[in-house]
Amino acid sequence: MHATLPLLRHYGFPAVRRKRLETLQVNVGYRCNQSCVHCHVNAGPQRTEMMSPEVIEEVLAFLPQVETLDITGGAPELHPQFRSLVSRARRLGKHVIDRCNLTILQEPGQHDLARFLAAERVEIIASLPCYTLELVDRQRGSGVYERSIAALRELNALGYGADLALNLVYNPQGPVLPPAQDQLEADYKRELAERHGVVFNRLFTLANMPIQRFGSALVSKGHFAQYMTLLRSAHREENLDAVMCRSLVSVDWQGTVYDCDFNQMLGVPLAGRKSTRLAELLGRDLAGSSIAVRDHCYGCTAGQGSSCGGALHA
């Protein structure tokens, strides 16, 4: 695996400061039932990192300071306390997002997972990098497309895509920017409905970040500098106002806080700080504080922009 952090200091990304904190994004562990080629977490079945019960309690103690708990991984559902965390957060009145890879719904021991998520009215943001079998299986592994469609049908039967929020995520297949989100969403909705009778609410288009597994692949193929040039040349200043790090903090499985999930994967701490635990931020107002930036941040401001909630502008 090629380290990309030393390569992300050449251009000088603009300074960014925080707004009001709205979302706590929590990575509960890196174990996953898939190993996708674009994964910026480098997650997979062999990863063993898992958030401890003590850190789970730190997360719950912090929740009164935010509106949304955004749970990610790996496959976050593989954490033994995933369901407890969801239920306790919901009892606190928090909006909960599960970043789901869909195939986890068919894994052993997860037969009732979809029903649980529906009962708790959890928003599902699910990765489906294309609406065709060939491209999904190329990026995520053989059989993933058919299992994903089966999962989407199960979710639809429970009210997802109608009364319950079901959003899909698109990542490009290579070192290119995503196409226009609105047009691609229309294509997804048409194709998935006609081919499989599947419905969903929104499509989020995300740029691939030049870090971890995807970044390493770029270095191996000699495409890293070219991709960085693409991101920087497509930078739009107006996207800076809406980047996710302005209203979100990211917590890793050990309880350490970062400005975003991508900084977490690079080990870049909060701006002006060394390692900071979530418990240290209890009761603190982060509005106005600096955000740690590197050149991978151009992935969020290039073109229509990219965030955990998809494109920032049309």
Describe this structure in words.
By secondary structure, the protein is of the alpha/beta class. The chain has one domain (5-301): TIM Barrel, CATH 3.20.20.70. Helix content is 30%, strand content 11%. Strands 6-5-4-3-2-1-7-8 form an eight-stranded mixed sheet. A hairpin with a 5-residue loop joins strand 7 (248-251) and strand 8 (257-258). The longest helix has 16 residues, at 181-196. It is globular. The two termini are 35 Å apart. The mean pLDDT is 91.
Keywords:
314 residues; alpha/beta; TIM Barrel; eight-stranded mixed β-sheet; 10 helices; 8 strands; 30% helix; 11% strand; globular
Q: Count all strands and give the number.
A: 8
Unreliable stretches covering 5 or more consecutive residues: none
Total individual domains: 1
Q: Identify the CATH architecture.
A: Alpha-Beta Barrel
Average pLDDT metric: 91
